[in-house]
Fold these 2 entries.
Entry 1:
Amino acid sequence: MLRPQPGVNQCATSAAIRAGAKGSGACNLYSYVTLVSNPDYLIGAKALARSLNMVKANYPLTVLAVRDMPGLEELEALGCQIVPAPPLALSEPFRQRHTRKEQHARDPFTKGNKPAFHNPRDNFVKLRLWQLEQFERVVFLDADLILLQNIDRLFEFPEFVAAPNLYESLSDFNRMNAGVFVARPDKRTYERMLLQLDTPDRFWRRTDQTFLEHYFPDWHGLPYIYNTLQYVWFNLPVLWVWDRIRVIHYQYEKPWETDNPKAELLKPVIDAWWHVHDHGTLPDHLPKPGQPAREPVHG
């Protein structure tokens, strides 16, 4: 069973127990969980943690840290609990099939650009959340997203609930996106997953996402507003309604990348991320798709 590092309180800050919460017992039973595999995703996790505080989330954020790295103490200062989560013990043939080079050669990403720091094999460490048996239920959140509204109600949902992989057309509703989902930790589930994951010649084209869609074929669908992919901004602008969106997911290009090729196209969406990262609040002005954005102020 994965355990937090010594000295980290599961309800570390006042943000974890607020007026209207279900009490400290509920706090101990529920947790948001994210995965930090390298320093770049640590940057994203800081914005995620600040967004949880911004929307007054009643439950803490547990960070699965794939490796030790400078800056994890900044997440602790934001109320996160750090849980060491080493890479899965997978066979060498499996590891070779899922290198960045092999994945991009066998099934390239044609809709967007994966950043250079993206390591496909690290995505599978996400499965370790099923080892977190100290929690009755968890809501997983990718480190490259922010909350715009409180989503604590997701803890009332069963396993396995996720939103569609909607970024271009209605056909996307048939596919799951693993950036936000509800799970019930159980080491038996984790062990069964490993048996199905590392099988001869099996290639998971979109790593954890494809595997989870396979393992939970009857997954329950959430509305897209609980995991709104940033490409909806320009591909399906009629669906981009700031007041309704609960979560923005910065799939493909990351808002903190200095060479983001879609920086101008996604400027208002990126500005929102930076404002949360720098100030812990959303900008005063949130333009509709097609409206001009104001100049952001970072720092």
Entry 2:
Amino acid sequence: MINDSQNIKIMKNKILIIILVLFVNQLVIAKIEKDSISRFTFQKMQLLEDFEDDCDACGCSASGGSMGFSSMLNNNFVGLRYFNQSYSSRDGIFANSPWVKENFNTVQIWTKIPITEKIQISALVPYHFHNRERSTGTENIQGLGDVSVMAMYSVYQTHKDSTVFTHKLQLGGGVKIPTGKFDEANNTGSVNQSFQVGTGSWDYLLVSEYVIKKKNLGLSTMLNYILKTENQKQYRFGNQFNYGSTLFYLFDLPAVKLVPQLGLAGEVYGTNKQYGEKLPDTSGDILFSKFGIEAGKGDFSIGVNAMLPINQHLSNSKIEANYRWSVNLNYTL
């Protein structure tokens, strides 16, 4: 029998899904209308760009994918997350070009909504505001980023009281919609060509998550792969592989729940292409240490995480990641 509280929760989830679908639909419609209006201008500019010397030294994609798509305290939630990424890169393509600081800032609505007992829908709606200090002055860009929507299916899950260890394996996939703007002018003379609010391309995600627990101690491991396509500027960012493993422990205190976390996370970037040609110094890899804590009371939780690089090789050492940190506030569905 389904009681009144369960009926209310199911109704709330349905409403959230409808709102999410309508919101994403409006973003896609707005993107299509904008592209159709500017198509003639784009084609005219493309004729000019074919004769220009394009810079072939590009950066890695600073997506923060290794931060993951879920919370340790909330299996199903809607929340707000802010994360900051700090980089240093060459201000130019030459060996003696000066180093400049770059700050990538993102405010993100993120959610994980149950559809059935085994199926969940996740969505990320980012707003970016980035800045960097170049020799010519400070550059700032901001705007809506690329929205991601994913579906996760629980392939295997043990009952909490069935074994000493409990296991949960989820597999899924999704799409990243080009709702963010890709401006080729941002890449002029710059090593880090990820100084953008969007890639301008439809990209596809393959996602997996495995959690093993013994009482209050657990280990969460995630793997995801992003297949990136060519945008209208005939630019294609390299495919990206993200991985991470986080050890956590639940302190179930009378007043609050605390979950400290410690782990590793990494990213591997493929080579970027333009006009079908591979661009040098655009691939790379990085390994981070990761630590943080989540605290929950009632239906609300707050989390803080930080990531520091252990080893990195980005864009032939022309880009260096300094640190990342994030804070999130979630409401349990």
